[in-house]
Amino acid sequence: MFDIERWQEIFETIRKNKLRTFLTGLSVASGIFILVILLGFGQGMQNGIAQEFEDDASNRIVVWTQVTTKEFKGLNPGRSIQMRNGDYDHIETRFADQLEGRSARFRVPNAMVNYKKESVGYSVQGIHSGYQQIENQYMSQGRYINYEDHRNVSKVAVISNTIKREIFKNGDDPLNEYLDISGIKFKIVGVYGDRGGEREEERIFIPMSTAQRVFNGSDRVNNLYYTLKPVENLDQAVAESMKFSNDMKRYLQEVHTVAPDDDSAINVFNTLEEVKRFFNLISGIKMFFWFVGICTIIAGVVGVSNIMLIVVKERTREIGVRKALGAKPWSIVGMILHEAIFVTAISGFAGLIFSMGLLEVFGPYIEVDYILNPSVNFNVALSTVFVLIFAGAVAGFFPAWRAANIHVIDALRDE
Amino acid sequence: MIEIKDLHKSYKMGSNSLHVLKGINFTAESGELVAIMGSSGSGKSTLLNILGMLDEADSGDYTLDGVPIKNLNETKAAKYRNKFLGFIFQSFNLINYKSAMENVALPLYYQKIPRKERQERAMKYLEQVGLKEWAHHLPSELSGGQKQRVAIARAMAAEPKVLLADEPTGALDSTTSYEVMDLIQKINDEGNTILVVTHEDDIAHMCKRIIHLKDGVIEKDEKVTQVRASQYV
Ligand SMILES: Nc1ncnc2c1ncn2[C@@H]1O[C@H](COP(=O)(O)OP(=O)(O)OP(=O)(O)O)[C@@H](O)[C@H]1O
Ligand SMILES: [Mg+2]
Fold first, then answer.
1. Best residue of B97, B112, B140, B147 to probe chain A, by most A CBs closer than 10 Å
2. pLDDT in tens, B135-158
3. What distance in Å separates residue A22's CA from the closest CA in chain B?
4. How many angstroms away from the CA of B64 is the closest CA of chain A?
5. What's the rounded Cα separation, in Å, for the pair A327 and A408?
6. ipTM score for this prediction
7. Is the Cβ–Cβ distance between B128 and B122 less than 8 Å?
8. What is the domain-level CATH number for residue B138?
9. Using a 6 Å cutoff on CB, does residue B18 contact ligand 1?
10. Consecutive H or E run containing A23
11. Which of A13, A109, A349, B13 has CA atoms 20 to 30 A from the CA of A148?
């Protein structure tokens, strides 16, 4: 390896056999090139999809309850589970440093809504102030239900743009007007909008405490809503949110004496779970790219082996001459392998640098849906180059060894 | 210098074998210039290749410069070839991508002589064969005679004890042949042992001794008065 004489000998050979060297190099370089570009785009797809989801920040977690389906601690199945304020309060304290938004929800049963003797059919829901952020609602007028309303058990309500259009047909200002909900007057303090669509705007919101107390709700709640504080990367976000969901579910199961394997009594829906499913799809795609890449590398190795075979065949007579002049078999093998390894290494790295440079320079400008900043792990690419060099050397060794051991006289006779 | 006793060689071709050398006995002293003659297929090249350790005999003894040559592995054989022997082939066998000088320097590379010295020595021998100006030309840019002279320079560069030439003038016209023989004679004058295979009588008579091969044995072995090639060039 460090034999300077041999290096000189090899440089001479390479310089004078440019075409042969070029072809060997090309097959290696293109193999690496294709692999790196493929892997780059695999990563790009992952980045792209991650971004789509991060934009939405849709890390909403919803809890609802149904009846139990399994017998547990002597309790029969078919019991309906009812969440209470205590559950909400406990979760709020226990997970305080993870939670960003939180709200419980209580649907007022059989609410009759009237405005000036005119009956309208809307759902009335008691919520906490955090509900606005969780549902991504915006204010068109006035304000949302706030903590003060909740604490004072105020009889205030927030209506939607849709409701406003239907009730205040001649464009009257709804603020400070009174709605009659099952016989009790509520002052309208705000008008909200929800991009989620018409159905999302068919609701009137009142403070949680008011809803429970005025409408016989006691301390019952129907749903719990949470969002978690954002974290740096999506993987971590998914992990944390899954953990939160599970911990919370376990806690509720315990408190309500539900079998741990009863999956329908207490339900937790986590939007990040969807994201995770998407990510599994991406890893599938990445695997496929790897597969294609490895096939490319194998093709590259076969190419190198073929070239080595041809090179050795072509040089048989030269090998004979060298042996007649006193070359030992190992020096012949060494010479051929040394040259092969040198050429594969140089062209492998050239392909690597070229493709990575291409990704580096043009990657950030690629603007296709679901592909963002394709890039490749340098170590992975580097290892591939080494694999290729090694494979080339192994593939070259056998013909070289055979050639070095044929009788001089046979080698010289070769045309 | 060279001593062979009862040398046999046959080639197997399918089921039948061709007995080419059927007991050759022959000695050559240091400084001899021997021509080997015989009809085509009589085994001249076979004999020379065995002497040059390019091929192996089936049986018989061969001693080169006091070293018995028998059952050598490739590495050993390579060493002896490099140290003792120089080859000149009918088809020159120059490496086509190397310049004249690099071709001449090649045996020195296998003697592990440093590059600089290799080149100096190669130039010296090229000068001796009158091709100093052609040192950096590729074989394809040289005439047949020039190529053979490069091959001779290459054979001499390693300063071997024995030079083996298989029809060195076979591919050359008579004038060039005489030039090549003139060189060979001069090398012989310096004390080198040289064996030349040839078909041509006049070339054979430029040697000091002629061996005639026929039917696998030496039919005739005669000393001749050497005709100097220099008078024709
Ligand atoms: N590798 C081989 N395999 C089989 N037969 C061979 C081989 N080499 C030589 N022969 C045969 O051995 C015989 C002697 O061959 P050799 O080359 O020694 O002849 P030669 O005297 O040099 O002839 P020429 O003057 O034509 O060069 C020939 O009949 C040839 O066909
Ligand atoms: Mg012959």
1. B97
2. 999 999 999 889 998 999 999 898
3. 16
4. 16
5. 11
6. 0.91
7. no
8. 3.40.50.300
9. yes
10. helix A18-56
11. A109
